[in-house]
Amino acid sequence: MHEHGLRHDMNALMQRTLDRRRGLRWLGGAALGAVAPLSLLACGGSTDDEDATVSADSGSCSVVPTETAGPYPADGSVASGQRLNALALSGIVRSDIRTSVGSASGTALGVPLTVVLTLVNAGSACEALAGRAVYLWHCTRDGGYSMYSGGHTQENYLRGIQVSDSHGQVSFTTIFPGCYSGRWPHIHFEVYQSLEIATDASIVSDYGKVSQLALPAIACDQIYGVAAGYSASVANYANISLASDNVFGNDSAAHQVATVTGSVDAGYIARLTVGMAI
User: Which domains does the chain have, with CATH numbers?
Assistant: First the structure.
């Protein structure tokens, strides 16, 4: 509260935002030289995050922390007072998860994002884990979840299953998720021993790992407030950091922040090594 008025406050806020972004870009350039735009460092959203994160996907195979599946998993368990199961849907085994399957026909719009997870056995010299089923899901660009959130209950997009190849990799074509109130931008995933177990409707939550991927601040800075459809993310993102997030803030986020490359125009690729103790 002061006598300078709203214009003063808005100008001050914009200046602080520009200063933060300039600092992040300077750090990226110092670390990566001329190729900085092609390799985004996994930095936090504020100075509080600097000690909580490091560059992700470093090649190590430390065990990724186990996290909550959250209130919108649709994995056959009871969540948000409902028992929904996207894993039982015909067509749910797919790489491109931007459209709905079955009787639903909607398409989730947003900046293109490819998510590549590499599953490795942290207890056996980082051996690739082939044949594992990965169920991945996340929110829309406006922060809603298909099957649960208002306006999205009749859709099942941004959910899908892939089986890891001989290199332990799965790849999903999707969109960059929005930032909703109280959470840092993230993507959920569950790892099952096999596709048969993952898609068996009589077996609930029999996964070997449930965790979340955190998206780096530099990519978020490039999208929120710039790309169409992400306006709701701007204020939410300004009020959250990795350190204050109620999931990532409880663990060291070093093994959960993805390495992201790309641009708003060309789309992005997010990569994360998922270490599991087998």
Answer: 21-276 (2.60.130.10)
